[in-house]
Write a structure and sequence with these properties.
CATH topology: 3 helical TM bundles of succinate and fumarate reductases
Pfam families: Sdh_cyt
CATH superfamily: Fumarate reductase/succinate dehydrogenase, transmembrane subunit
Oligomer: single chain
Shape: elongated
Order of helices and strands: HHHH
Strand content: under 5%
Number of domains: 1
GO biological process, one term: tricarboxylic acid cycle
Cofactor: heme
Helix content: over 70%
Keywords: Cell inner membrane, Cell membrane, Electron transport, Heme, Iron, Membrane, Metal-binding, Transmembrane, Transmembrane helix, Transport, Tricarboxylic acid cycle
Pathway: Carbohydrate metabolism; tricarboxylic acid cycle
Number of helices: 4
Number of strands: 0
Radius of gyration: 19 Å
CATH class: Mainly Alpha
Mean pLDDT: 91
Distance between the termini: 65 Å
Length: 115
């Protein structure tokens, strides 16, 4: 008989829910964005800037980017945990991906609030 050590109940449930929530946020934003894009009077740089002039659109766009980055983090982290066995390599990969995603979030904020 084999003894299995259970490390925690519902370990993957939180990640599964997080990915579903972030995917829902991204899907809703995509619909919202397309509707806003179709309502533009003209496809010009000025119209594009006017669309992002309001704080709500900037916030919604930043929420989209944060959802995308967190969604990517959960997926990539799970792939690394499943397929990269050496702990040092996995830690290095996690660190690089985390730093990149944090940098991308900062870059997105800089772009959105510089408009």
């Amino acid at each position: 008989m084999q003894k299995r050590i259970v490390v925690g109940a519902h370990y993957g449930l939180r990640d599964w829910i997080a990915q579903r929530v972030t995917a829902t946020v991204m899907a809703l934003y995509s619909v919202f964005f397309v509707i806003n894009l179709l309502c533009l009077p003209a496809f010009t740089s000025d119209a594009w800037r006017a669309m992002f002039a309001g704080g709500f659109m900037r916030f919604a766009t930043f929420l989209f980017w944060l959802s995308l980055f967190f969604h990517a983090w959960v997926g990539v982290r799970d792939i690394f945990m499943d397929y990269v066995k050496p702990v040092g390599v996995r830690l290095a990969l996690h660190s690089v991906v985390a730093l990149l995603l944090i940098g991308y979030a900062g870059w997105a904020a800089q772009i959105l609030w510089r408009l």
